[in-house]
Specification:
- This is Circularly permuted ATP-grasp type 2 domain-containing protein.
- Pfam families: CP_ATPgrasp_2.
- InterPro entries: ATP-dep_Glu-Cys_Ligase-2, CP_ATPgrasp_2, UCP005522.
- By secondary structure, the protein is α+β, with helices and mostly antiparallel strands.
- The protein folds into three domains: about 260 residues, no CATH class; about 100 residues, Rossmann fold (3-Layer(aba) Sandwich); about 60 residues, Dna Ligase, domain 1, CATH 3.30.1490.270.
- Helices cover about 30% and strands about 20% of the residues.
- The protein is built from 14 helices and 23 strands.
- The strands form six sheets. It has a five-stranded mixed β-sheet with strand order 3-23-22-19-18. A five-stranded mixed β-sheet has the order 13-5-4-20-21.
- The protein is globular.
Length: about 475
């Protein structure tokens, strides 16, 4: 469990008085009757059910689709806090894109010894097929979700860079719309930065990286694995919000080096594919030959410069957990600047000294799979049983290069509606970044909250919920 005495409370200061960004919210909460939030929570659940906002839980016996729990108390970030965060995010995503271009071309960072070459070249996320190819505007990761955690008044850490197919932005938008329906008077008392422009910004970003951006009309599609994917609601939501087609692999085909979409009339040439399927399944002729999700010949059309794939194949190397420890070096190498936002201190278990330290301190640290996600394949030492630690020790000793470890952070906590009333619960934050003709960062992002007292696991697949995130304007 997290130490409830040491975490940073985002609403209350050490004297138990509301911090300035939360002052009006605290007064608003004081004036509400005991059952007010319970009723509003039920109203929110009804809205989500009507909209079909669900996610799939693989391996769950009781159901395949669930509502993500929604907390009706917003998380608030002041304008000065957001300016620093957005500057750090901007610096980070630019450096990661420069890193991707470099490793698929001259590999200067490897030749300079700033990152061990084998860590990149022997990594399963590195695609040799991308070598020598330059996407439009030299942008590889067009849509990035940067996971942040807060540990003190002025200290945020980057927990993870999601440069492949980051999800959750639809929940950010639906959370905002639901809050505006439920609490219009609360919005009137705050100057909250808007998030509603995200689909428009996404469309502008995708149009800007088309093979021929001068065309008066670009054909853009969202490529989904299908209705059984855990994020299918989001795929459909984004396609509908942008006014573009949602397609599966069978809806596309390649002819004479160009990609076409089947229609009820004649085939239509596709300029940009916002793909939500993994690299291995994009093209059975280049990658996994058994893939039924992709489009035969797609990668050759992409390499010929006749279609843009967002995010580019091979971007996963930039958010690989083994590479994560080197992101500060990446930022310095490509920008000449120190990172504005720090990494969480990280032990790479492929190093003998780091492995020895991790094995000696499993009870106190967090161990993660290099390619893991969603809260799976990890050990949270302080909350694990002796048996779980012993079993994980064997796994770690057998395959140490598959793991990294980090200290157990005292994540900040926000006021959250629970059965007993309002109580602090630990949170993280995923701001969403778009990179094309410019960098566009949506103010706020998706706040995920660990609903169990003391829990540090915020993932929806592990019982976490979400909150609306308010960035206050000056």
């Amino acid at each position: 469990m997290a130490d409830e005495r040491t975490f940073f409370n985002e609403m209350l200061d050490e004297a138990n008085k509301p911090r300035q960004p939360y002052a009006r919210l605290a007064k608003w909460l004081e004036d509400k009757p005991a059952n007010f939030l319970t009723k509003k929570g039920r109203d929110a659940e009804t809205i989500f059910r009507r909209l079909g906002i669900t996610f799939a839980v693989y391996g769950a016996e009781e159901a395949t689709e669930r509502l993500i729990p929604f907390d009706p108390i917003p998380r608030i970030i002041s304008a000065p806090e957001w300016r620093r965060l957005s500057a750090g995010i901007d610096q980070r995503v630019r450096a990661l894109n420069a890193f991707l271009h470099d490793i698929y071309h001259r590999q200067e960072i490897l030749r300079a010894g700033r990152i061990p070459a084998e860590l990149v070249l022997q990594n399963e996320a590195f695609l040799p097929e991308m070598a020598g190819f330059t996407p439009a505007r030299k942008v590889y990761a067009h849509i990035i979700g940067t996971d942040l955690v807060r540990v003190s008044e002025n200290e945020f850490y980057v927990l993870e860079d999601n440069t492949r197919t980051p999800s959750g932005v639809s929940y950010m938008m639906e959370n905002r719309e639901t809050m505006m329906r439920l609490f219009p008077e609360l919005f009137q008392s705050h100057r909250v930065a808007a998030v509603e422009q995200y689909p428009e910004n996404l469309l502008q970003t995708l149009e800007s990286v088309a093979p021929d951006p001068s065309k008066s009309s670009q054909t853009i599609v969202v490529l989904t694995p299908g209705i059984y994917n855990s994020a299918y609601f989001e795929h459909a939501f984004l396609a509908d919000s942008m006014g573009v087609e949602l397609v599966e692999g069978r809806d596309l085909f390649v002819d004479a080096g160009h990609v076409y979409m089947r229609t009820t009339r004649e085939p239509k040439q596709v300029d940009v594919i916002y793909r939500r399927i993994d690299d291995a399944f994009l093209d059975p002729l280049t990658f996994n030959p058994g893939s039924m999700l992709g489009v035969p010949g797609l990668f050759d059309a992409y390499r010929a410069g006749n279609v843009t794939i967002c995010n580019a194949p091979g971007t996963g190397i930039a958010d690989d957990k083994a590479i994560y420890a080197y992101v500060p070096d990446i930022i310095e190498f490509y920008t000449g600047q120190k990172p504005i936002l720090n990494n969480v201190p990280t032990w790479n278990c492929s190093r003998p000294d780091d492995l020895a330290y991790v094995l000696d301190n499993l009870e106190d640290i967090v161990v993660k799979e290099v390619h893991g996600s969603g809260g799976y394949g990890m050990l949270i030492g302080p909350t694990a049983s002796k048996r779980e630690i012993a079993e994980f020790r064997k796994v770690l000793e057998t395959n140490p290069s598959n793991y990294i470890a980090q200290p157990t952070l005292a994540l900040s906590a926000c006021p959250t509606h629970v059965a007993s009333g309002v109580a602090p619960r630990h949170v993280d934050l995923r701001p969403y970044v778009l990179i094309g003709d410019q960098v566009r960062i949506t103010p706020g992002g998706l706040t995920r909250v660990a609903l169990k007292k003391g829990s540090l696991v915020v993932n929806s697949s592990q019982g976490g919920g979400t909150k609306d995130t308010w960035v206050l304007e000056d």
